[in-house]
């Protein structure tokens, strides 16, 4: 495999694949690929090699899940920390110190929106997948990542720094 740099995002990378400039793209988000390139999936123009994330996606049965390759608990924790940002999508966050009742009100408002029939109908019409996680789930992911042993964090930094140096 040879890494080709210079494509600023998925749109440019997908176009490069269509032009034959590159043979793949390493950072395709499943929901984005489904909505922007459904023909690629339907016509089997792409092959998904591995899936990353907090958990295996049932829609991707048969595509290996990266965490399943982890040999040790530290390896699994490293993948959990590295993949934590993938769980957030486009998050809404509040700063530290916001009173608990206000946090609860925000969380309820978002939950109510995601369960609103009009909102859901509009998402379906626009072919936008709605698969929200709760604020409590997101907070748990952050807490798990921040609780990782220092050795795991140092190893992940080393991997990121080695890639950045290329």
Commentary on this structure:
With 166 residues, this protein is mostly helical. Helix content is 51%, strand content 0%. α4 crosses α8. The protein is globular and about 55 Å long. The two termini are 14 Å apart. The relative contact order is 0.09. The mean pLDDT is 89.
Please supply descriptive tags for the structure shown above.
mainly alpha, 0% strand
Overall spatial form:
globular
Largest sheet: none
Task: List low-pLDDT spans.
Answer: none
Order of helices and strands: HHHHHHHH
User: What is the rounded Rg?
Assistant: 19 Å
Proportion of beta-strand residues: under 5%
Average pLDDT? 89
Structural class: mainly alpha
From the N-terminal CA to the C-terminal CA, the straight-line distance is: 14 Å
Q: How many beta-strand elements?
A: 0
- Give the fraction of residues assigned to helices: 40-55%
Per DSSP, the total helix count is: 8
